[in-house]
Amino acid sequence: MSTGCFSFFKKAKAANTPIIQARALEKPAAPAPTYAEPRLPAAHEHFDNCYQCSGTWDKSLDVELPAYTARAPFSSDARDAIKAAINDAVPSLTKLSMFISDHPELGFHEVQAHKHITAYLEDAGFEVERGYKGLETAFRASYKHGKGGRVFGFNSEYDALPGIGHACGHNLIAVSGVAAAIGTRAGLKKAGLDGEVVLIGTPAEEGGVGKGVLLERGGYKDIEACMMIHPVGGLGVKPGHAAVTPTLAVNTVNVEFFGRTAHAGGAPWDGVNALDAVNIAYSSISALRQQIHTSDRIHGIIIKGGEAPNIIPDHTAMKYYVRARSAAGVADLTKRVVACFEGAAKATGCSVKYNSERMMTDLRNNLIIAEEYAAAMGEEYHLPTYIGIDDWSLAGGSTDFGNVTYALPAVHPHYGVASPDGGNHTVAFRNACRTEEAHDYTWKFAAGMACVAARFIQDSEFADDVKSWYDDNTRGNK
Description:
Blueprint: H1 76-102, H2 111-123, E1 127-130, E2 139-145, E3 150-157, H3 170-191, E4 195-202, H4 210-216, E5 225-227, E6 230-233, E7 242-244, E8 249-258, H5 274-288, E9 297-304, E10 315-324, H6 327-348, E11 351-356, H7 367-381, E12 385-387, H8 401-407, E13 410-411, E14 414-417, H9 427-432, H10 436-458, H11 460-473
Helix pairs in contact: 1-3, 1-10, 3-10, 5-6, 7-10, 10-11
GO molecular function, one term: dipeptidase activity
Organism: Cutaneotrichosporon cavernicola
């Protein structure tokens, strides 16, 4: 979950405390990873961000599930068709997932993943557009049934992390989108519904804000509602539970200081020390944290500090992430961070240059879709979903799907995967996302998305409620 991925769950206060007290669920045996270690990519100059996976649970969700609007159960025949279609595809989808895990690729360079996913979809009968909206490793796959009708979309992510591969479970996210599309198609056929299911393949979630690029280029303009799911792991998370909660907006700020070199021992007075500017800026921002909101986050690193101890540095660089509950909050907080940069430059006699990258907005989940998803998961699999769309105590990470939730009605649930030795962005979690158990939960939560999609296409009242909630609570509220 990046700047995009989620180590979205944290150790609970009691290691064996489930995050939700809901329908009883037998604890499945956690199979040990039996797959070969995947090949790992090296860090790439175009990949140096990862916002999302720092999200954490700050409290145990040992609470009652919130009430939600009960609707008449959706067509049982359609739901059965959805589950059957996904079950039939499990062997081939698992093979696809393991290939992606074995061949990790960094953001905007997911050539093999793009090739194999699109080939799979094409062979399955979907209409596929490769290189979607000018992004080489993006795609759009679609299936239309009948004439007209509503359009529901899913997302697949398939970029990896430098050095540790698919340690945020994007191999599972990739195939969850494919599974949901296959399931929805089966539901449309079984129920005889006019409508369309679309799967968007989105590159570079881990730092490149790929969904933001696609949005700017009109990649979602024909989709009326959208979903994706994301695995999370670590102690304190009961496998098979899900949560729909917000994430923070985030802005990446790059800064450089420019001074003048001099011999640090022979004539230091002739130098203008750019490292001093970095030191003052870092200290100023550290002091600033005392005065910011408890949900805000500012964290950064020194990219370049100098060449040698006996040379006064004339060029230094830093990178910061600035997070807040909203895009407006990030913009305001960024101004305060920039003031620290400018003050440091003035104090040391350096010049300063800074810029911001494409922002990830906060995740604004649609309550109506979330409620239907929770109902579907409970009715079909007896798996509980916590709905806390305004529970900011659980927010800490960021995702470019947040940008999608402001453009159209959308929901981004997270689901637990057994990973007792480490959460997202660890080797342990990478291995956990290769297990049979993790894949089994993925198929179930993907089927839940397909059930929501089929209902959205079939049920005009439900679709209208989804859009009305978006209009009243999300549109224009950045």
